[in-house]
Amino acid sequence: MNNGESEAVMDAHILIVDDDSAIRTAMQEFVEMSGFTCQTAASAEAALDLLRDGCFDVVITDIMLPGMDGLDLTDRIKNNHNIDVIVMTGYSGDYSYEEAVSKGASDFVFKPVRFEELLLRLRRVLKERRLTQERIDMLEKLKRLSITDGLTQLYNSRYFYNQLKLEIDRTTRYQRPLSLLLMDIDHFKDYNDNYGHLEGDRVLVRLGQVIRSCLRKMDSAYRYGGEEFTVILPETEGGEAATVAERIRAAVQADRYHPKGDDQPISITISIGVTEYHRPEEIALFVQRADRAMYQSKQAGRNRVSCLFTTKD
């Protein structure tokens, strides 16, 4: 085994389920000598109690158990836990591999169990488990990358429209309020021209952090494009959204930057537009109204919050 597989073995927690105490003891000793952490249970019911309280990677269970049998136990485990199961039986004519697999078992061995064979099967199951988790982690990472702005680590504009559609569907279904903020950094081109784009990127990253710090868990922030950002505020009426916008505006203005080549700290300001959704308007009209509100902030002198709450504005 390579180092990754060795670590998977050493970290693995195994549960052995068998009503024969001699078999349980012998298997536990062998499994622990092979480098695993191991516990045992004499019945399916006792095993389920342990699974509720503990963290296991693989359950090795006999089929013939008092009360609930090993196949029903396997079915319960696969429906309620992310755990692999190896099924054992001494009755090769009564139970088939297909039946065990149909219940979710990862492997099937016959009694009397040869410990060396069991170890090979256990390692194979753990290897497949580790590879499956690595694939899941990779897919999750790719998903995060596809919806995240690489610079600010906020969500990107493509994901913004997906989420806005979901929130509009939800607010339409449940008749709940929904508001939107659209914001733009004031005189950002001048900042980039004076201090360079690397310093400008530092501003974008920091601004993303400040915006996030002003939001609730249910709110979501996005880099809309360039120096523009947007925030979706579910369960929020227009007046409440204006309060959130003012909190963000003040926090951004209070922050200080120290660009290279300038001894004095620099402050950045933003202009924010606020609007509330009106059922059943289209997404484009909703976003355009927020954009018009932001433009009003620009025209009125920047570093301020402007609100458009009706479709006639």
From TrEMBL:
EC number: 2.7.7.65
InterPro entries assigned to the protein according to its UniProt record, in alphabetical order: CheY-like_superfamily (IPR011006), Diguanylate_Cyclase (IPR050469), GGDEF_dom (IPR000160), Nucleotide_cyclase (IPR029787), Rev_trsase/Diguanyl_cyclase (IPR043128), Sig_transdc_resp-reg_receiver (IPR001789)
Reaction catalysis annotation: 2 GTP = 3',3'-c-di-GMP + 2 diphosphate
4-aspartylphosphate found at: 62
Gene Ontology molecular function: diguanylate cyclase activity
BP GO terms, sorted: cell adhesion involved in single-species biofilm formation; negative regulation of bacterial-type flagellum-dependent cell motility; phosphorelay signal transduction system
Alphabetized CDD domains for the sequence: GGDEF, REC
Cross-referenced Pfam families: GGDEF (PF00990), Response_reg (PF00072)
Annotated keywords: Nucleotidyltransferase, Phosphoprotein, Transferase
Alphabetical list of SUPFAM superfamilies matching this protein: CheY-like, Nucleotide cyclase
The GGDEF domain, residue ranges: 176-310
Xref: Gene3D superfamilies: 3.30.70.270, 3.40.50.2300
Record-level GO cellular component terms: plasma membrane
Residue span(s) of domain Response regulatory: 13-126
EC category: transferase
Protein name listed in UniProt: diguanylate cyclase
